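Objective 1b: paired records.
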Amino acid sequence: MLAGVCTNHLVTMAVASYRFWGMGHCDRRYLWLYPLSVLLVIDIMLRVCWCLVIRRRVVWRQTHYPIDSHGRILS
């Protein structure tokens, strides 16, 4: 059941994306990059969640910033 719903969603998104790209006069040759960009954004979001929830620190320019339980940087 779930596999059918997921497949239906993916097919619907592919058709809608193809049509919207055509309406925007975009080159449809690059439409295959859309799933790759979605995977990259998901990777970025998972890394952010990992830093905020598990590690409780953010590293930027070789400086470590500790984070409290609300996601705020501690001074």
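Objective 1b, second protein:
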Amino acid sequence: MALGHTLRRMVQFLAVLWGAATLNFFIPRLAPGNPVRDQLTQMANQGGYLQAGIEDMVKSYDQQFGLDQPLWIQYFRYLGNVAHLDFGYSLAQYPTHVLTLIWNALPWTIGLLFVSTFLAFAVGTLLGALMGWLKAPRFMDFFVVPLMALSAVPYYLLGLVLVYVLGVVFRLFPLSGGYTINEIPSFSLGFVLDILHHSLLPASSIVLAGVGFWALGMRGMMVTTEGEDYMTMAEAKGLPDGVIFLRYAVRNAVLPQFTALAIALGHVVSGSVLVEVVFGYPGIGSLLYKAISGSDYFLIYGIVFIIILSIGLATLAIDLVYPLLDPRISYRSS
């Protein structure tokens, strides 16, 4: 791989990070109101009384978080902190650091979304390849309509259906949460099984909806591949059907799937926000929803930047790995 292309992609990656971080800083600032005052007022109202001296507390917190400084000073301070992944303190859960909250929620989202995404990708790609293969069994055609329907249903809507059917009607799975409330987190087998039991419903909604997407995409690429010259040549050589299917058809048709997979894995950090909210799952999606609801600027900054970073790294990785997946692709100068 050409060194010049790699350096150019790295520069583009850093430029995208800077631009996204800049937008990440300024867009929340367009919202009206003071986040500190909003939080203190909400706490006072929940306590059933009007907090005396609330303006003095607002000034004190503004100084603590640097919100009393000019915007350009806040911006450059923000860029310096972001370079060290230091997003400051959470406004709603002070004095907890933003990075602490993210690290606590990240394993839940990665565990749920990584497994669900890879499972949906593997099953959907295989089904799509078989549906698009002319010599596949005829019963594979019956999967087209159900998979099209599943691909059109949003994760969260499918999640609500699963909650009602499997959680309320049949009571097979818990309705929400990452584990049973009275359980003490540990590395015991019982606690791991409890986590798996709670994750099956949200994982099922993601897998069922994702399978349709991956299957239809792979089916379309397989149909295109069927008419290529190398497929005709492989059949003329008398190669076994299994070899033609795997080495000639699937190997070439699956390349766009890997690009989509890289983008999907980048979005894993953000999680399926609405799915996590519907199921009350303690992941990044639920944390982001609470941060937006509570105008927790610094927590929003942290989560959104981590999402941008993950998507950028995923697309950069797939761009650099592509020549290994397909030898026809080369970034060397002619």
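The mean pLDDT is 78. The two ends are 13 Å apart (CA to CA).
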